[in-house]
C-alpha cells in the first residue's frame, strides 16, 4: 500500500502526462485564431456581439458540433 504523498505524486504525474503535444498545439492554434479575430473584429459592435461572433467562428456552427466525434458534448449553459 502506498502512502498518501506517493499517491498524490502519482496522480499529479498522470495529470501532467496527459497534456500531449497535440493538445498543446490545439490550444495554441485556438489562441492564435482568437487573437486574430480580436484584431480584425468590427469595433462598432457591442462587446457581447463580438464575443458571440468570436465563439461562433472558433467553435463552428452549432449544427456541426453534434456531428463532430472529436469534440466533447457540452450543454448550452456552458457555452452561454
Overall radius of gyration: 18 Å
The figure for the number of domains is: 1
Strand elements, count: 0
Question: pLDDT below 50 for ≥5 consecutive residues: which ranges?
Answer: none
| Basic shape | elongated
State the helicity in percent bands: 55-70%
- Major sheet, described briefly? none
Structural class: mainly alpha
Give the count of helical stretches.
5
Percent range for β-strand residues: under 5%
Sketch the topology as an H/E string, one letter per element: HHHHH
The average pLDDT value, as a whole number, equals: 78
Termini, distance in Å? Answer: 45 Å
Overview of the structural elements:
It is a single chain. The chain has one domain. It is built from 5 helices and no strands. The protein has helices at 4-17, 21-40, 47-59, 62-65, 76-79. The termini are far apart.
